[in-house]
Amino acid sequence: MQTIQYSKLFLAIAVVACFSAVGVGIALRSLPFIFIATFLGFGIMAYGIVQKRKDR
Fold it and tell me: What is the span of the domain harbouring residue 33?
């Protein structure tokens, strides 16, 4: 069994939280909140993909 990579786990949880926040923003009908959460989610996801490629 492999060890848990906590930094990547944290990034994955952060991305899920950002996209969950988009749902909250939709419920609140707050466009700035939706855009900020969306861009933050995609930014964190892109950072995680870059880190994954560097590890190879």
Answer: 21-56
